[in-house]
Specification:
The protein is about 15% helix and about 40% strand. The longest helix is centred in the N-terminal third of the chain and has 28 residues. It is elongated.
Length: about 375
């Protein structure tokens, strides 16, 4: 039988991997999936950082922007271009708010803009993760497809940053992960990590008449290389300065061993960099809420929720950061997740209906403005 100290040591190492591996996996998946995309990204980064030798002689005027799906993000734009140069321009569009921008799709507009010509283009985000959140300052950049020269619009800020989360109601399961084939709500990246015959899924579901994201993890209890089976929805968001309400239905009991090392987890991770990590878990404890730090500095807060019933819990992220004496970063990684370590046999499930402002129902925020 494995001793308790050895078990704690192995579980501590598993926690470190759980904190880091999914982030690195997402980076590999979305930032460097192919050599061809590397070339595209390199050209885009050069353009965004202004490392070109000349400016594209094109006037860029943003006529309107839109958020037709009410995700709380700008997903469409109408742009008017005028070519003041002496050569044809083959325009490609990107937005400046991401360090590695996506090229947006051209819905309408001529593929070639002749010298002296003015034309209007309808463009849209290739996927919702490429769309700037409401309250995010951005500019629309136009590259010539044959070079790295570019032109840029005036700065734009749409909507408000009161709830800086894209699609907080977890609607519209239209986004598909290319490596797993799993679908996720628009604006959220999805991942899973399983070993052997373990199961980890997130799907749209309904519980007691409420539509929600359904999380399910089956852990065999047999030794796994990474010792955790887990899955989650991930989004990088501006730091939330308001109180947030999370509506959950949990059938995941609180389980931990020596020093509070967790064996099961269902809830939210807020992280920044390699060291700052907060787990906000929604698990029946039978003894009230729990809050403590793990020996590695990770902060744990467990909300004691009723088993198998809908409950709403309020998250005071600024208050947590003040308590921990951490300086709030500009942006954090937000992850909704479920997991179980291989130190237990488990069949876990639960639902998250969304995230909303305190004392308001979780819902998406309208957007779309004319700058």
């Amino acid at each position: 039988m494995t001793s308790i100290p050895a078990t704690v040591s192995r579980l501590r190492a598993a926690h470190r991997r759980l904190l880091g591996e999914d982030a690195r996996r997402l980076l590999r998946r979305y930032a460097v999936p192919s050599a061809a995309l590397l070339v595209v990204l390199a050209l885009a980064v050069l353009a965004v950082r202004g490392e070109s030798s000349a400016t594209l002689p094109v006037d860029v005027r943003v006529v309107a922007t839109g958020d037709p799906l009410h995700l709380g993000a700008t997903t469409q734009a109408t742009v008017m271009l005028t070519n003041h140069g002496h050569a044809d321009v083959r325009p490609r569009f990107s937005l400046s708010w991401l360090p590695y921008p996506y090229y947006w799709s051209v819905v309408s507009g001529p593929p070639i803009l002749a010298p002296g010509q003015t034309a209007t283009y309808q463009i849209e985000a290739p996927q919702s993760v490429a769309a700037p959140h409401d309250g995010e300052r951005f500019q629309i950049k136009v590259n010539d497809a044959t070079s790295i020269t570019y032109a840029i619009s005036a700065p734009i800020t749409n909507g408000s940053a009161v709830l800086p989360i894209v699609n907080p109601g977890l609607r519209m399961w239209t986004q598909q992960d290319p490596s797993t084939g799993m679908f996720s709500p628009a604006g959220w990246n999805i991942y899973k990590h399983t070993d052997g015959d373990d199961v980890a899924t997130i799907t749209p579901g309904t519980a007691l008449g409420v539509d929600a994201a359904y999380f399910h993890v089956t852990q065999s209890g047999r030794p796994d290389p990474d010792q955790w089976t887990h899955t989650g929805l991930v989004q990088t968001v501006p730091f939330a300065n308001e109180l947030l309400d999370v509506k959950v239905l949990s059938r995941v009991p609180y389980q931990a061993i020596t020093d509070g090392w967790l064996v099961t987890a269902f809830g939210i991770e807020i992280s920044y960099g390699k060291r700052e990590s907060i787990w906000l878990l929604f698990e029946p404890t039978g003894s009230g809420d729990k809050e403590y730090d793990l020996p590695n500095g990770q902060h744990i807060k467990v909300y004691d929720v009723p088993f198998g019933q809908w409950a709403t819990r309020t998250i005071d992220l600024p208050g947590l950061y003040r308590k921990l004496n951490w300086a709030p970063p500009r942006r954090v990684n937000l992850k909704l997740f479920m997991g179980a370590s291989s130190f237990t046999r488990a069949n876990l499930d639960g639902y998250i209906a969304g995230i909303g402002l305190h004392e308001s129902a979780p819902a998406t925020q309208p957007g779309g403005n004319t700058p």
